[in-house]
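User: I'm putting together a teaching handout on how multi-component assemblies are represented. Below are the sequence lines for each component of a complex, exactly as they appear in our records. Could you produce the 3D structure of the whole assembly as structure tokens, so the students can see both representations side by side? Please keep the chain order the same as the input.
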Amino acid sequence: MTARGVLKTLSPLFACIGLLCVWQIASLRLDTESFPTALEAIKAIPSILGDKGSLLNILDSIRRMAIGLVLAVMFSIPLGLLMGRIKAVAAFFNPLMMIIYPVPKAALMPIIMLWMGVGDVSKILVIFLGVSLPIIYHAFQGSKAVEEKMLWSGAAMGMSAPMRMLRIVLPAALPEILTGCRTGLVLALITMITSEMIARQSGAGNILFNSLDMAQYDTVFAMILIIGAMGIVFDAAFEKLRLSLVRWSQPRDDMPLSFT
Amino acid sequence: MQVVSLRSDAHAESEPLSGRKPASAMIEIDHVSQRFQTSGKQSHLALSDINLTIDDGAFVSILGPSGCGKSTLLYIVGGFVQPTDGVAKVKGKAITGPGPDRGPVFQEFALFPWKNVLGNVMYGLRQQGVKKAEAEARGRKLLEMVGLKGYENFYPKELSGGMKQRVAIARTLAYDPAVLLMDEPFGALDAHTRTRLQNDLLDIWDRQRKTVLFVTHSVEEAVYLSDKVIVMSRSPGSIKEIVDIDLPRPRKRADLLLDARFQKYIVDIEKMIDDGKDHL
Amino acid sequence: MTQTRINSVLLGITPIVLFLALWQSLISFGFAPTSLLPPPGAVFGKLAKDFFTGDFLHDIAATLIRLFAGFGIAVVVGVFIGLAAAVSPAVNAVVKPLVRVLAPIPKIALYPALLLILGFDHASKITLVTADALFPILLSTYYGASMVEQKLIWSAMAAGTPRWQILFKVVLPAAMPSILTGCRIGLVISCIVVFLAEMITSTDGLGHMLVQAARTFQTVDMFVPLIMISMLGLILNSLLHWLRSYLLRGFPEV
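Assistant: Of course. Below is the structure of the complete assembly, with chains in the same order as your input.
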């Protein structure tokens, strides 16, 4: 690798260091008790991750997030693909989605807890709801954009309609679907944290606000660092996976476009 | 017919160019080379030591296989691309960037989608500081000239390819450039539209006698329109031959198609291109 | 309206009607007690009754102020940085890694820090909205601006446009479709985030209404703010859609 290449791969690392430096300086200048320095926050990380209770709490959050995400992916991709190919399906679901779209899914947490209790089911359901829409939307866009002539040649080869869906539409829409999944991944993390912040029962979001209530400011900021790192690591890992799955598709750029 | 003198000498001697330069030279291209950096440390010589003089009021076509650098040469005259070596001059002054003395017309039309037809044509005039009312009046006149009266308030997306290119030509003529740089302007149009636009372009040229540098890959188009045809070859892009087209003007397509001289020019030039075997 | 258009509208209304019917029948057939699931009629009746009370309007106003302030700042900052990153390699070299790091962070996690630094008032919520809406706007501006057709810029330069004006006369309008797409995503996110922030800590706003109702087990009052935020989202979205079709009237495929 050339020196330029090394610089390019390491640039996010430099960005992290730069941000931490800005934080450190800002905190030293402001000098209030409620805004610890970056170093103090980093020092507090091992005590959180070393604590068995907190660690299990966080791992439990991730487990629920994974289940919710996988369920959403399995539900959303077929629906989105169908919407993209069959006009009536799209006309059926589009207005409903328009209405649901601006509703904050994590805000449903109090109502769902009222119905289903505070167990895993509620938390997974909220994550499922939070993640589904963008994945449906991207699968819809991807399958709508599939060239009609590709399907014609598929039909000419004697492929049945479900077969064409599986063998032509799915792979052709894959880059767009994976973009949706990437957004979904980040959204799953966001929904998880937010619903835990609202429910205040367990999980990473709960640790965050409990320490805020108890004025353990180092822990607050350390927890923010942990959650931030989770976001960055998940996103980077998924991007690696995505690149290996759709090597044939031209990548647009290497900036993540979350939320689209 | 306008008398043009044209000089291409790949092995130019030390004798200064100005020594033989005619008084009315519009564009001078002096030892111009263009090297493009491709991936890694490789580079590709798109143009190799081009020397060319184009007289004021001449209609000159550049013809050659794809990848011979003919568009690059046009972009260098336009000032959009800086040559790696050598100098390109317009009216004796070295070209440092784009300017309203050289107006481009692209194959892709490149109209501003957020402006309507009149707005597109007025753009250059407004940019030159012409008052709005006057720019509008002149814009309308130009649109009438290119046969688009009544389409002033249409948006480019509502027009056919041929009409878009008429707007693009009007937009460029609006700021009255001394040189028209046409980069395969009719390449994206169907055969019928293409013929009509060729005829209309000749009409306009007969009236205004602007210098035109016209890139094309159609031999017939080049012969039909031009005073001179520059045949280029590729790897590296260089001038292979320059052909004077000695056909009377104003030219009528119907007459020319039956004219043995016209046919011979086409056959000869096609042979030149084939000889290079670089069409592969 | 053509027959197909009528058909698709009817099709679109069907699931919404079905949804309401299912909701009502769950109560009518005794599957859900009204204390857990109030009937839709009660919810919409409450919404209509509350709507003209001072408190409700005050809550909506508080939410809207935060939403617009946060979203507005995000548009200005996002478009500015996105354009700068597209035209200047130096800015790009700094912005790109920063965005790579910051975009996938769940911004809501920053909320406690914002509370500690900016206090519990408007500022922390507005900043959170900005932080969340910023990245989609910035990124779509960047993509739109870096994909402007070269020959559009050349045409403008040949017509005598100075280099510094190209940014505003060509790049910005040409990138407009992409910028507005980013704005639409940013707007929906703003709606969601402002509501969540108000749920977590606030003394007013629609999110606070929901939390307040949940604490006192007033299920009807829990649904009212949710429906309100959905309606706000729809209204704002259609306003933006209208603005978009006006601004992009010359662009194909809008």
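A couple of points students might notice: Residues 161-199 of chain A form the longest helix (39 residues). The two ends of chain A are 33 Å apart (CA to CA).
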